[in-house]
Amino acid sequence: MSQPNRLNQGGSIDRSKPLDFTFNGLRYSGYEGDTLASALLANGVDIVNRSFKYSRPRGIVASGAAEPNAIVQLGSTEAAQVPNVRATQQALYQGLSARSTNGWPNVNHDAMGLLGKLGGPMMGPGFYYKTFMAPASMWMTYEKFIRKAAGLGRAPQEKDPDIYDHYNHHCDLLIIGAGPAGLMAALTAARSGARVIICDEQETFGGSLLETADLLDGKPAQQWLANALVQLSDCGDVLMLPRTTANGYHDHNFVTLHERRTEHLADTAPEAHQSRSRMHHVRAGQVILATGSQERPVVYANNDVPGNLLCSAVSCYIRRYAVVPGQKLVVTTATDIGYQAALDWLDAGREVVAVVDCRANPDGDRVKQARQKGIRIITGSAVFEAKGSKRVTAARIAAVDLDAFTLTGQLEELACDTIASSGGFSPVVHLSAHTGARPVWNEEALGFVPGRVKGMIPAGGADAIYSLPAVLESGLQAAQQALQSCGYAAVSVDLPKASQRIESKSAALFQVPHLKPTSRAPKQFVDLQNDVTAAGIELATREGFESIEHVKRYTALGFGTDQGKLGNINGMAIAARILGQTIPETGTTVFRPNYTGITFGAIAGRHCGELFDPERYTALHAWHLKRGAKFEDVGQWKRPWYFPVGNETMHEAVARECQAVREKVGILDASTLGKIDIQGADAREFLGRVYTNKWAQLGLNKCRYGLMCKDDGMVMDDGVTTCLGDNHFLMTTTTGGAAAILDWLELWHQTEWPELEVYFNSVTDHWATMTITGPRARDLLSEVTDIDLSKDSFKFMECREGMVAGVPARVYRISFTGELTYEINVQANYAMHVWNALFEHESTYGLTPYGTETMHVLRAEKGFIIVGQDTDGSVTPEDLGMQWCVGYDKPFSWIGKRALSRPDTRRKDRKQLVGLLPTDPSVVLQEGAQIVFDPKQSIPMKMKGHVTSSYYSPTLGQGFALALVMGGAERMGEKVYMPMADGRVHEAEIVSPIFLDPKGERQNV
Amino acid sequence: MSNVAVFDQNAGAGVLAESPLSHVSGRKGGSSPGVILREKAFMGYLTLRGNAADAAFCEGVEQVLGMPLPTAPMALHQNTQKGSSILWISPDEWLILLPGGTEYETELALRAELSGHFAVVNVSGGLTLLTVTGPDARHLLHKSTGYDVHPRNFPVGKGVTTTFAKATAIIRRPSETTWELVVRRSFADYCYRWLVDASREFGLDAEI
């Protein structure tokens, strides 16, 4: 297909490399070097989308990140779908396939468009709030339709075939923007030897130099640019990142850069293992903000009809892409930039109808140039309305009195198909605002400049410096200042010579008055992406939304991926005019990350799939896998949950495992328990202060169960601690609590009791722990150890050192099942050897591996709590019936003691730990079920407690549970009820939480 | 009652030891791999705690290890003759790396030489060492840790405890071309998978 708007020469496209692409199903062609937007304009595609709310036809307006309309859905396959891509930022590649994000049935004929035309006045700001407010129950229905009608693209339904990754950097200088200011700063910094990163969101470096007609050192600026890039790429410590958007500026000069690595090449990354985009996490000493400026469109009636463009975009398309986006141009301007667009248009061989300038006597160089070329110049006037629906057909102009905000004099209608507007420039302050710094109004430049941010230096257009020589100078100065802050010596660099052009002073033109009042005039769009009009802002202020933040939220001005790039300043100026205040009094809204939309993949990086979160393995993990274990996540650990044999269900496997422990011997991999080695002369004293119970008398090689409270008196951890020497203890913690308890000990040691001589070290990973438990545990262990296991020499709650299967081991005789138990600890590298040695006797003793589920059943039968399951941070030791584990008479106080004397912790009706036996033995209560005393009371019932642990016990032959019940300790034998969501009500009897062997005879054999 | 329990935790011959990465199989990365990854399994590791301001403590450590105690933050000292090294971890903590099997005698020697308040803990079963070399080794680290591994900030003779992907690791630089990672046993598989994944674009040679 031909490209009617393409010039035969000029531009930086490569005409020898044609590329085919499709847009909304139609085939087109462009060239390498095109963006999707320039290629669409070359092909004469006027309508690229339907607008968000009113569904009005829209065309391309801008040439970069600010584009509000040409937001497309990219991807030729389902898996490669990418929403919210700006056509102006998407490089063209062979086979590119894009669609409009809005428009049903298609952009040229849109059903919703009728609303935009007919229902327009009804859909003011707050339309959705007001219309769909009631009934609330219908909101879900409305929402579906609203979302379908609105929408800005869709996520893919299939798995993304690409990968995304992260890369960390530290640098002295991060330069954001590689236009003349940024490049000059980089050239300066490169001389110093500093570590420099320079990034730019465009395909190639250069910014405005890519299309400027200005000369540098007497040659085209593009030649200087090419030299500069060669110089920079020869510097070892300068990293150049094109196609890279600084999307977020966070605290302490931490900046995230989103680098699109293959998005200019194909739908998906062409090479295996190549990340499609990369998020650079940059910690910069100094940031030079060289983000340039953004031209403001002028707000006039029907300024959204396709064919309305920015003046700078017109120049850019002609000069960079050799595309003239129309035949007959009318310019409406408040700056000399408008004349540049007219001159470029004329050079391209097309007709300039007129330049309409709101200023009375513009006299800049480019004005004179235009006059010399015979372009009609109409001063003191502006375009106040565009005619046309799917493309501009004419511009209505009139003399304008901006101070009085009225049109004066004769109206004139100029036939044209393109209107280019320029209301002046706004520095791109978004990134500086991410840090929380409010932009500051610069009256001279008629724009907001970045607020002060420590470690950030704005340069060039971002600081409202617009003439090329001044921009280059500011880049150099910014670099010198930044280098000095980083401790580098000043360097001498020559500035290229640029001619100083005479510019006429810009006027403040935001909204052009209409013949009718704003509310009656055709729509005058302020924010094209969010369909916010001048009338909408007027209405918002009339309805009392006077703060600019409220105006923003009521109208959606600058929402979403737009972030106010084109519309914000115009919107604020309009609000200021209506409210009768100045623009700085009105202020700006807050710009937030991300500057432009980025894919979630880049945010996640490689932290997805199997790398989403670390999986921690014990030394025996490979064995568990081979044995067919099902795993449970405990923190980041993978713990065997149960070991099914054949086709066993979980219930069957757990019943078998429980039975094996109660009747023969089971084995558990307990390596995940937290283990803390404690050494020092004051170790024992320290234990006494952090545990509720006493440690003064614990003898050598004796073990003791300890309970730890937070300072609020609530149980936070428990475990067994063993005395290995007078100054040496080994503490065990819950699996999930290991790291937090080590921190807790350090906190109290370092902040409260630094005088105590004690050191804590984690040995969790060093020791592997194998728990053998059951009546035959002693017989099994005696097969492989030289330790004297006899009942009287190695007693319950004692520890021994010895050899187990040829490996030096510490064996602890403690029990979490109520059975005879030995916990064998060896240096983890030997764990598999010892485990295998035990399993050589598997058949002799009926040795059965069991997992966490069986462990839970067995411990619950004994009434042993699990901190975090039977407690929830609101349970005291006494609530658990563990008064025996609290030493109120210890000489030094301990953490939680004082809180336990508060009236609240002494209440009789606190929730207390009890056992529950369901009346129907086949019932296994739901964990978390709420407990009531009277099942017949009316709803809402008075909830008196809840079930914390509940299992089926093969030993008891019935379901049983642990629960926290108000005043439960005094309610033994009483019935309680658990009303379920399905209407059933379970009945259970309150019993002791110890269901099995209350005297502990089984573990004391 | 003795003050501290110390015992030789090394098993004799005939006992098969398994490193934290014994379950993974390495992969060859073609003729010119960008990253070469090796595990130095079964090293001896001792955590040392004590007071660096105590001259006797410093002298005692130097006496036993044959190298001075690093007192500057993140300093790594090496005794190439003995194949051992000591890294500053925090103001009162160091990690000593030893040839495997010598941790017990070293602990005994330290305890004999030192007095007052100090601690020595054998942590050999809980850690393993990975070496990363090759032209893209530093790129790999950039992808894995937020710490600044540029030579200006990370010269030879430095080591830090820092984040590594979503785990922690000790990163050490014993020579110009070699980076070392000391990782915890339970995180070793995760760290290895991360390294394999992050190295793909460079080409990986991993013999584990």
UniProtKB/TrEMBL annotation, chain A:
Domain FAD/NAD(P)-binding: 172-431
GO BP of this protein: tetrahydrofolate metabolic process
E.C. code: 1.5.3.1
GO molecular function, one term: transaminase activity
Database matches in SUPFAM superfamilies: Aminomethyltransferase beta-barrel domain, FAD/NAD(P)-binding domain, Folate-binding domain
Domain Aminomethyltransferase C-terminal: 911-997
Keyword presence, Acyltransferase: no
Superkingdom of the organism of origin: Bacteria
InterPro entries for the chain: 2Fe-2S-bd_N, FAD/NAD-bd_sf, FAD/NAD-binding_dom, GcvT/YgfZ/DmdA, GcvT/YgfZ_C, GcvT_C, GCVT_N, Sarcosine_oxidase_asu
Record domain SoxA A3: where: 522-606
Pfam hit, one: Fer2_4
Keywords, in A-Z order: Aminotransferase, Oxidoreductase, Transferase
Residue ranges constituting the GCVT N-terminal domain according to the UniProt record: 620-890
Family: Belongs to the GcvT family.
This protein's name: Sarcosine oxidase alpha subunit
Record organism: Nitrincola lacisaponensis
UniProtKB/TrEMBL annotation, chain B:
A GO molecular-function annotation: sarcosine oxidase activity
Signal peptide: none
InterPro entries reported in the protein's UniProt record: SoxG, TrmE/GcvT-like
Oxidoreductase listed as a keyword: yes
Enzyme Commission code(s) on record: 1.5.3.1
Xref: Gene3D superfamilies: Heterotetrameric sarcosine oxidase, Probable tRNA modification gtpase trme, domain 1
Name used for this protein in its record: Sarcosine oxidase gamma subunit
Keywords per UniProt: Oxidoreductase
Pfam families given in the database record: SoxG (PF04268)
